[in-house]
Amino acid sequence: MGIEERPALRRLPPGSHGIPADLVARNQRERLVAAMAEECAEGGYAEATVSAVAKRAGVSSLTFYKQFAGKRECLLAAHEELLGRLLEAVDRGAGEEGGAASKAPAALRTALAIFAADPPSARLLTVEVLAAGPQGVERHDAMVAAFAERLGCGWVPAAGMLALVGKLAVAGEADRLPGLEDELGGTFRSLN
Amino acid sequence: MSAEELGPLPAGRHGYSREQVAHHQRERLIAGLAAAVAEKGYAATTLSDIVRHAKVSRRVFYANFERKEECFLAAFEVVAEHLRELVAAAAGEAERWPAQTIAALRAALAFLAAEPDLARLCLLESRAAGPAATVRFAEAVAEAAPPLARGRAERPTGARLPASTEDSTLGSLVSLAQRKVAVGEAERLEDLLPDCVELVLLPYLGPAEAARLAREAA
């Protein structure tokens, strides 16, 4: 259920394995994104270094720089990719039928389950991205807007929900999130 | 903000004179860090920038702080303490909880709008300043939860509000403010007052009363 699709992120065997170069590059990028989230979860974005992220991803720093101009660009790209995967899963979880109002409970449940299953990604999405400065805030706000739409609530309660996710992820209590579903759902209803 | 000033503290508010304060190297370093961070952001700020702004030597820096992060945390603390005092003083002027809450919000936004560099330091740079700053930021925000939770007594249904109400409310508040700072409009943080009043009072007073007080606060 994790955002990172970990099994698919295993390191490719080195050498001439006959795997097309663009597939290798995509795999490396995904591993770097996952490594960035894990590195940030350990010591925060400020402490994360390019070499540590590359090492965790099992690639060289040179490979890192082929994918990203620097640490900040990697963080912003990681946010974009993780959010894209999260929203896809949320939309799948919410199903095809009905309008925003009837989809909202399933969307919230799916999002909370994914955040709980993948605390490093939850933390990167809601907390660490803000370390990228104004562009990070912009990405964060785009996420708030995406959730407001899917949860059928205003910007303010969506921002509050994501702040709560961040707080619990930083405190190492992301596993409590699914238990907050009723509470959060109730909050959105009362705020609308 | 010059390094001669004690960054966050407007002269006269804190009980000691600017001259007295300037003699304290630690405080000069804190102001130096605030000035350097305002100039180039936390990540790009070097020790040389801090000591240059503070007009002290590197040796003095290391006598006071082990590293940049520690100096940043000290600066954050100075601003947080000042905000705490301003907010408490403003809330103390009002009698009932809604008016106290509005006064506290007004005071905090006014201070941050008047000190945009410090607003940026607290709301944006603190997120980039390492794990300890992340934790401190969260703790500082959480300090506002108990006074907010007193709003639960305002309505018979208040006790039934979800336990996470204060956390989500404060999270929304921070998101709104940081958005303003990120687009370079920290000076206009006070424009957010009606929105902030409404979002903070809503769970406790209900939509109609929250909207009425928000209009009144504008």
What is the fold's blueprint, element by element?
The complex is a heterodimer of chains A (192) and B (218).
Chain A: H1 21-43, H2 50-57, H3 61-67, H4 71-94, H5 100-117, H6 119-126, H7 134-151, H8 155-170, H9 181-191
Chain B: H1 18-22, H2 25-40, H3 47-54, H4 58-64, H5 68-93, H6 97-114, H7 116-123, H8 131-142, H9 145-149, H10 165-182, H11 193-205, H12 207-217
How would you sum up this structure, described in words?
- The complex is a heterodimer of chains A (about 190) and B (about 220).
- The radius of gyration of chain A is 17 Å and the shape is globular.
- With about 190 residues, chain A is mostly helical.
- The longest helix of chain A has 24 residues, at about 70-95.
- Chain A has helices at about 20-45, 50-55, 60-65, 70-95, 100-115, 120-125, 135-150, 155-170, 180-190.
- Chain A has 9 helices and no strands.
- Chain B has about 220 residues and is mostly helical.
- Chain B has 2 domains: about 5-70, no CATH class; about 75-215.
- Chain B is about 65% helix and about 0% strand.
- Chain B has 12 helices and no strands.
- Chain B has helices at about 20, 25-40, 45-55, 60-65, 70-95, 95-115, 115-125, 130-140, 145-150, 165-180, 195-205, 205-215.
- In chain B, helix 2 crosses helix 5 and helix 11 packs antiparallel against helix 12.
- The longest helix of chain B has 26 residues, at about 70-95.
- Chain B is elongated and about 60 Å long.
- The interface of A and B includes residues 47, 137, 157 and 190 of A.
